[in-house]
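User: Here's a structure from my thesis project, written as structure tokens. My advisor, Dr. K., wants to see whether a designed sequence matches the one we expressed. Can you design one independently, without my sequence as a hint?
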């Protein structure tokens, strides 16, 4: 009986040894990606990824983390997926284990450290160009140049801007992302000032501090407008930048860029031709004045940035191809209006020019935004 009992014991022991499952292999290549929030100090979450463990004995993965080097790792969560999304401000370090059907854990994966030292430089400058229903933004590419292997993309934000107070709004919206150091913010309302900021995002999702902030205002424009000298065709020798179609003073009711009869007294200017064949802008209606934008030719209409504060006159000024001109006009509501012209061609009887007009009362921004505006309050970003 002893032999049978011992033999049975041997059989039982052998059976137990055969049913014990070896520990699973640990997950490999654990990595992370942060979710930017707009505030570089407070990411909105972290996404962990790892290579899956291929085994029929796998039950779940367990994620461990700690918030400080002095702390022990605690169980954060378990998942059947090979990814884990942790919302809110991430912990300092994470690792993952594979858990089998009996609850036994594998060795830990590699540990990832959410290291803010991987954050990129902020763009050192930001410029803007006012366009028709849009703003073109450009900034320094120093974040990419300083760490090309760690760079992912730029993030462009915008908010409202108070021209009277010189302040950006408190709630920011994500306009979009780009890998280039420029961005076209489109579908904007003409005459509505906006404030912009740009950050750089690393491949880990770290968001840099923001660039200097920039305020700008989109405005209507038109290209290749043809007008005649009064002496050649007086019916098409006058121009008015804006006209209140309904008489209610509302921007939506404005008619813009009107070529009209040079005999009218409500036009902004008419085109005169002297005995030498030279063309001149002649201010017409009360409150309209003109100034030469630059003593040198300009490359494009968008080269005309802020309307000058002085130098306007009621006197006629010669229209020369390549040169820019700024008009200051009475808006009828106590606020000035500003328009710009760049002459592209002067012929024997007619001239061709490009024009822009700022619909925002009193706003002198005609192309490039009105300087850098620093925002000193808290920033709330609303994702779109």
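Assistant: Designed independently from the structure alone:
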């Amino acid at each position: 009986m002893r032999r049978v009992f011992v033999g049975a014991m041997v059989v039982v022991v052998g059976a137990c040894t055969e049913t014990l499952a070896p520990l699973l292999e640990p997950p490999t290549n654990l990595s992370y990606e942060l979710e930017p929030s707009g505030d570089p100090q407070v990411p909105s979450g972290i996404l962990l990824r790892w290579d899956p463990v291929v085994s029929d004995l796998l039950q779940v993965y367990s994620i461990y983390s700690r918030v400080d080097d002095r702390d022990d790792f605690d169980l954060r969560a378990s998942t059947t997926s090979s990814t884990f999304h942790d919302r809110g401000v991430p912990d300092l370090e994470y690792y993952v284990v594979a858990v089998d059907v009996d609850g036994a854990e594998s060795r830990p994966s590699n540990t990832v450290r959410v290291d803010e030292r991987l954050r990129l430089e902020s763009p050192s400058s930001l410029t803007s160009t006012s366009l028709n229903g849009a703003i073109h933004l450009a900034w320094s590419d120093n974040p990419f140049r300083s760490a090309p292997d760690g760079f992912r993309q730029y993030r462009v934000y915008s908010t409202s801007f108070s021209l009277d107070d010189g302040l950006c709004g408190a709630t920011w919206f994500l306009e979009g992302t780009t890998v280039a150091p420029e961005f076209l913010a489109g579908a904007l309302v003409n005459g509505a000032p906006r404030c912009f900021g740009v950050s750089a995002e690393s491949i880990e999702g770290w968001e840099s501090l923001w660039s200097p902030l920039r305020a700008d205002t989109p405005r209507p424009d038109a290209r290749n407008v043809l007008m005649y000298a009064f002496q050649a065709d007086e019916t098409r020798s006058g121009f008015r930048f804006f006209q209140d179609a309904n008489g209610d003073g509302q921007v939506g009711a404005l008619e813009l860029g009107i070529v009209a009869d040079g005999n009218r007294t409500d036009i902004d200017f008419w085109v005169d031709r002297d005995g030498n064949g030279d063309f001149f802008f002649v201010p017409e209606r009360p409150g309209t004045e003109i100034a030469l934008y630059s003593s040198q030719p300009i490359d494009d209409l968008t080269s005309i940035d802020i309307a000058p504060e002085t130098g306007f006159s009621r006197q006629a000024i010669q229209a020369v191809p390549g040169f820019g001109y700024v008009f200051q006009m009475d808006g009828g509501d106590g606020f000035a209006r500003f328009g710009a012209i760049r002459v592209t061609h002067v012929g024997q009887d007619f001239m061709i020019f490009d024009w822009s007009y700022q619909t925002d009362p009193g706003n002198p921004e005609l192309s490039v935004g009105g300087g850098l505006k620093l925002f000193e309050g808290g920033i709330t970003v609303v994702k779109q």
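When you compare it with your expressed construct, this may help: The longest helix spans residues 2-19.
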